[in-house]
Structures are given as structure tokens and as C-alpha cells.
Amino acid sequence: MSVSSTPPFKAKFLMPQYWGIWIGVCILLLLAHLPWRIQFRLGRWLGEKFWALGKRRRSDTLINLGLCFPELSEAERYEMGKDVFRNGVIGFFESLSAWYTPKRFDNQVTIDGLQYLIEAQKRGQGILLLGGHYTTLDLGGYLSSLFFSAYIVYRPQNNPLLEWLITRARSNIFKQQIDHDDMRGLVSALKSGQIVWYSPDQDFGLKQGVMAPFFGVPAASVTAPRRLVKVNNSAILSFHSYRQNDEKPHYHLTITPELLNYPSDDPVLDATRINDMFEGLIRIAPTQWMWFHRRFKSQPEGVLSPYKKAAEQEKN
User: Fold this and answer.
1) What whole-number distance in Å separates Cα of residue 99 and Cα of residue 59?
2) Residue 248: exposure state from Cβ atoms within 10 A (0-12, 13-18, ≥19)
3) For position 1, what pLDDT does the model report?
């Protein structure tokens, strides 16, 4: 099983080609130790700058919000999009703090639904815990570690030094880390009765997925969860985290009840149930989910994605 805890340091990381990354790390360490109020205000300011400068991401965000929140006015969605960017940068600061100064959050978290996880654990079977791409990022992982230990499925970094740095930082949060391509390792963890954190809420294509509604819009939705819960009759629950206050932050975690009668014989129905569950959680704090990803990129053959449609309309 390809898991990582604290990976070994390699001498090549001291070569000049990596010096730029080391300089960046020093800057990030300084930012991680800033008082929260400064991090928050700097995050909001940088988020607005990225919103102004990031034309493509801004466009993708507004397209997603337009599809998923048609009941809102264009002005409301525009302000909502700006807040997504603000929360995205604030979430980056929260992740830095979770890696390097985590104790500042220990008395600022509450949790609902922990009993559902405990009940599932008592059966001695694996637990597939579905997490979303919320802007709290690794902070959500750290806060959850105050209540339970979990493996996480992750995508390795292409740069080996970044991979070492991030994996090492996350080793203080998660019990083990499993490469997203290592399905054998994931299955082994479930068979051994572990809690495995898995995030299926983005567009990973249709090769291993089906089209199912997400906020009422057809979206490529992975079918891996329905296969994985068959392993050792594993339980499937979901996890959500969000920041309730800003100036003096408080964080709330939610674990939903186990999804029963899952999987069915219909992969589209199963994917729809998962997407509906995510929609309900995202709506709790809608601007604390990463709307700047191209959630509706994959489409059936012959159908243009909304992003390509927008690009063609802009050309014309």
C-alpha cells in the first residue's frame, strides 16, 4: 500500500534548483505565525486582487454560480463570487496555520454527528468519509483530527520538494496518506477498518463516472464510492467544515448519518444521492466551497461545456 507519513529528506532538495521554493517556504512560515486578524484582512485583500486579475477563474466561478444559483440576481452572484475568492485565500492562511501553528484553533471548534461515526466504527468495518473541496482545506482535516483519526486520499505534487513539504506537514494531521491512483491501498485501508477521507465532489471525467445532477445541473460524477463501500461492507458518511465567524473565528464540523441502502443497482441514482448530499452541505456556507473549479467541464460527446460556450460567445 503506497502510504506516506513522514517521508525522508533528500540531499538534492538543497540544490540551487530548489532555492526558490525554500525562500517561499520561509515567507509562508512567517505568514503562518501572523495573528489571525491580520491573516483574515490580508486574505480578503488578496482575494479581491485575485478576483480582479484572474479573468479565467473569475469567469469559471460566475458560470458555475449562474448554473447553480439561477434564482439569484447577476449582482448577487458577482458579490458571491468575490467572496469565494476571499474565502479561498483565507482558507490558504488557515491551512498554513493548521500545518505550523495548529494549537490556535483547539478551542474554536464544535462538531455535530460524531455519534454516527462512532456507531459505524463499532461494527469494525471500514468507513468511507466523503469530504468536499471546502475552502477550509487542511484546517478542516486538522480540526477533525481532534475527534478522530483518518487516512486521506490525495493527489501527489509533481515537484518532489513540494511533495515532501506538503506530505510532511499533513503527516501531523492525517494518520496516513494514500496516492489517489493507489486503489489497492485504498481498498486495503477499508478492509483493515480504517476511516478513509475521500473527496468525489469535482469533475474527474466520465471514464470512471456518470452524468448526474449537481445543483440540478448535469455533471460528471465519479462512481468509485459505490464500488468502495462494497469492500468489507464499508459504511459511507460525509464530512463538512466551515468558518462561522470571521474576526474571532469559530469552526463547525458536521458528520452526516450513514447513507443507507447504498449502493443500488443504478449508478446514476447513487451518484445523484451523493451529489444531493454535497449540495445540502455546501448550501450551509456556499461561498466556502471552491466554485472556481470547472465542475461541469466533462460533457457527453458532442456537447460543449458551459466554459467553451462562454469562450465561443466571447470570440463572437
Assistant:
1) 31
2) exposed
3) 37
- pTM reported for the whole predicted model: 0.92
| 242-279 pLDDT tens trace | 999 777 889 999 999 999 999 999 999 999 999 999 99
Residue 4, pLDDT score: 46
The set of long-range contacts for 211-217, using a CB threshold of 8 Å and a minimum separation of 24, is 211/268, 211/300, 212/268, 212/271, 212/272, 212/275, 213/272, 213/275, 214/68, 214/275, 214/278, 214/279, 214/295, 214/296, 215/67, 215/68, 215/69, 215/279, 216/68, 217/67, 217/68, 217/296
CB under 8 Å to 75, separation ≥6 — which residues?
none
What number of residues does the chain have? Answer: 316
- The tens digit of pLDDT for each residue in 81-126 reads 999 999 999 999 999 999 999 999 989 999 999 999 999 999 988 9
Residue identified by cell 466533462 is 298
Average pLDDT in the chain: 93
Report the amino acid identity of residue 91.
G
